[in-house]
Each structure stands twice: as structure tokens, then as C-alpha cells.
Write a structure and sequence with these properties.
The structure is a single chain. The protein is α+β, with helices and mostly antiparallel strands. α5 crosses α6. Strands 1, 2, 3, 4, 5, 6 and 7 form a 7-stranded mixed β-sheet that branches. Strands 14-13-12-15-16 form a 5-stranded antiparallel β-sheet. Strands 8-11-9-10 form a 4-stranded antiparallel β-sheet, covered by helices on one side. The chain has 3 domains: 130 residues, Rossmann fold (3-Layer(aba) Sandwich), CATH 3.40.50.20; 65 residues, ATP-grasp fold, A domain (Dna Ligase, domain 1); 80 residues, ATP-grasp fold, B domain (D-amino Acid Aminotransferase, Chain A, domain 1, 2-Layer Sandwich).
């Protein structure tokens, strides 16, 4: 049975197939005989309360050129069985607008991850709903509060944008650093933008653990170890991946998050753990399939496709009742 997929994503020429999970998802869909199309968020529009897209059917291959798109055509998004929102951050107003259009997609089409949940579950702020699992955190735009937080912290602190990704803008400092106030002024854009300020978690020197959850269950994990002299466990800035295991703390966090993620329609999620601390819940376009598959000898794209197929069948059965 064909399960036609539409991927709302970055332009194909920007995709690095060597490490892109969306490419792996598209490739697995084609292996199963499912038709695949793509568009960018800019291609979405609505008329009469119906969501549409200027989409291109695309053949996806393991060998270069990897993507062979067809001509664009206007199609209602409800003509697909599955619509994936896989646009990478930044999470800006254009991204939010795209989620509004995706909310107009009629059942039984399954939209993943659920657009309203993507919109409300910002990677860093969503983690604050589980603050007992994370480092002590201040969210503020006021420089004086940042300085006071540093003075009360037991050691170093971390400053980061609330809407950043890939380790961009992450700074480590401490009370008494003559650059602290300047850092806070710069990151808050002179107190116009809120930032996160957190107690430093020293286990970052060991690595930042990425755990992939599918339908609320942990299915794959890896450790991203910062480069010498860096404090960011992001592959985007050169962190190296290593095999790892799930600790009892990791499993406790996953057990707590799993039911919430399922209830919110967040089928594919990546969480980040530094030592015992939950730092992020990635719901927009989590990645890591290729690296985890290599380290664990698994095929996460197959597990995800199985979960998607089950969800589509349930949605279609519900529509027939």
C-alpha cells in the first residue's frame, strides 16, 4: 500500500546527505514503495481553510545526485497520507506561520510532529517544564539578574539564546569574569531578548548524550564529545560521536517524558542529557540517525517508518468509523 509522504523541509541543495536524518527518512519511504514529495515552508499556502503546497515529487537514491525532483505542482496537503515538518531552525515567525497552515490539514492525513505541539514545545523552554531533571536555570533579559545569578551559582554558568541551535551563542563564564556583563548585554541584545542562564554541568567534558525517542520510547543513543578546548557537544561545531549506554537517570527521564510526548503527538524526538541533567527536548528536526545506526548497528529509519505506518492505519480506520 502506498503511503504518500510530503516533507516540508529546507531546499534539497542544502541537505548534507552524509548526516541528514530527513534524507534517511525519505530514502526508507522509497524503499517501501511509498511516494515522496517535498516543499519548503515558503511553498505552503491556504485557501478557503484548506492547506495547500507548491510541491515536487522527488525520487530519492542512495547514490548521487540523491534527489531527482519533478516539476512543481499545487496540491492540497490532505492528498498525502503523511506530512512531515522537517524544517531546521531558526524557530522564527515564518516557522510559526508554517505550523498554522499545517494545522489546517484535514484528517486522516497525519502531520508529524504535531504542528501545535512543535509550536508550543520550544527545545530549550519545553525542558523547563521538567526542571527537576535539568540544571538550575534562569530565563531573563535583564543583565542585573544574570550578574546576580552568577554571584549565587556554585561555580561556572552557561549563557545561551533561548531559540538557538547547533551550539551557536553558547558561552561559559562565572562570577568575577570582567566580561560577564558584556556577554549578557550582547546575548540579550541590550536587554531586548530573553536568554537562558544555567549552572554549568561539568560532565559536558565527557560528552552530551543524544537519545532518540520514537513514539515516546528510547530507541537509539550516542555521546557527542566536545573538541579539546570547547564546551559544546554539537556535531555542527566539531564534536565527535562515541558509543554509549543509557544510565538509570536517562531511563528515568525517558519514562517521565514518554507519555507526555505521545499525548502531544510528538512521534520523533531527540533529547539531550549532560550527565544527570536534561538540557533540551528537540521536537522540530532532531537528527543523528546515521551516527547512531553506525554505533549501535540499528536502522532507526525503519523503526520510525514502522511507527508512522501504524499511526496512518489508525488514522484511516478512525476516519472510516
Amino acid at each position: 500500500m502506498d503511503i504518500p509522504h510530503l516533507f516540508v523541509m529546507d531546499p534539497l541543495h542544502k541537505i548534507n546527505v552524509a548526516g541528514d536524518s530527513t534524507y534517511m527518512m525519505m530514502l526508507e519511504a522509497r524503499r517501501r514503495g511509498w511516494s515522496v514529495a517535498y516543499c519548503t515552508p515558503d511553498d505552503l499556502f491556504a485557501e478557503g481553510g484548506v492547506a495547500w503546497g507548491r510541491v515536487c515529487a522527488v525520487e530519492v537514491t542512495e547514490a548521487a545526485p540523491h534527489f531527482l525532483p519533478g516539476p512543481p505542482e499545487d496540491r492540497p496537503l490532505a492528498s498525502f497520507a503523511v506530512v512531515w515538518m522537517r524544517k531546521d531552525p531558526p524557530f522564527d515567525l515564518e516557522y510559526i506561520f508554517a505550523t498554522y497552515v499545517l494545522e489546517l490539514v484535514a484528517a486522516p492525513t497525519v502531520v508529524l510532529n504535531h504542528p501545535a505541539s512543535i509550536r508550543s514545545a520550544n527545545e530549550k523552554m519545553f525542558a523547563q517544564q521538567f526542571a527537576d531533571f535539568g540544571p538550575h536555570t534562569l530565563v531573563t533579559r535583564e543583565v542585573r539578574r544574570v550578574v546576580d545569578f552568577a554571584a549565587r551559582a556554585p561555580g561556572r554558568i552557561v549563557l545561551k539564546p533561548w531559540d538557538g541551535n547547533g551550539g551557536r551563542g553558547v558561552l561559559v563564564t562565572q562570577h568575577g569574569d570582567p566580561n560577564l556583563r558584556s556577554m549578557a548585554e550582547t546575548l540579550t541584545h541590550e536587554q531586548r531578548t530573553a536568554i537562558l542562564v544555567q549552572h554549568y554541568v561539568p560532565e559536558i567534558t565527557i560528552g552530551d548524550k543524544r537519545i532518540i525517542l520514537i513514539d515516546g520510547e528510547p530507541v537509539g543513543w550516542m555521546l557527542r564529545v566536545p573538541q579539546p578546548g570547547d564546551h559544546r557537544g554539537n556535531m555542527h561545531v566539531g564534536a565527535q560521536v562515541q558509543a554509549t549506554t543509557l544510565s538509570p537517570r536517562d531511563r528515568e527521564v525517558c519514562d517521565r517524558l514518554g507519555p507526555v510526548l505521545r499525548e502531544m503527538g510528538l512521534l520523533f524526538v531527540g533529547i539531550d542529557m549532560i550527565g544527570p541533567a536534561l538540557t533540551e527536548i528537540n521536537v522540530t528536526s532532531p537528527t543523528g540517525f546515521r551516527e547512531i545506526n553506525r554505533l549501535m548497528g540499528t536502522a532507526l529509519e525503519r523503526q520510525l517508518a514502522d511507527a508512522v505506518e501504524a499511526r496512518v492505519r489508525r488514522a484511516q480506520e478512525a476516519a472510516r468509523r
